[in-house]
Amino acid sequence: MDIQVAQLTTELKFIKNGMFILYVSPFPSALIFLMMKLLLKNMAISYLICVSIFVVCIKLVYRNASAHFSALPSPAAVAGVRETDNKIYLLVKEEKRYMDAQLYCHGRGGTLSMPKDENTNSLIASYINQAGLTRVFIGINDLEKEGNFVYSDRSPMQTFNKWRSGEPNNAYDEEDCVEMVASGGWNDVACHITMYFVCEFDKENV
């Protein structure tokens, strides 16, 4: 029996699952085997039950761990933060459509970034440059009424804007969302394209 226990613990010590290799202490395996041996006279049945119980446990642990970690944001997806006195800006390096980007920000207690003055616009533009990007979605659109651009919090645009020359032009009658390029200029773009984006949060709510 000692030889079979040693063989069992050796077989169960390393279990390879995809890219993951799990190390298992030999003691629990041996203990399960010995318990089964006490309950059953047949050595082969004891062995099979032990292996079956062990594999099921490993699968359950792996499944729960995978579900937990897949729900966490990837550290590589976030390019740091920028702050002002009242706001926090988060550049998210995950390509999403405009509405999905807005939902992402909203789900975390914020909104797509709303550059309502020169200082904020310059901060976001600098953020884009330092991250090595060329453009991001910002929280401006005219989805409700063509040509009537508003911020993502539905507040109307005032006198400040950074439209690039010839913009907004609503090319192909489908450009209802807005991107900021690395220079700080704005373009209207189609909402269904995907790109990185910047979320904005009120410090008092963080």
From TrEMBL:
Keyword Transit peptide assigned: no
Record-linked CDD domains: CLECT_collectin_like
TM regions (residue ranges): 20-38, 44-62
Gene Ontology cellular component terms for the protein in this record: collagen trimer; extracellular space
Signal peptide coordinates: none
All copies of domain C-type lectin, residue ranges: 84-200
Name of this chain's protein: Collectin-11
Species: Chelonia mydas
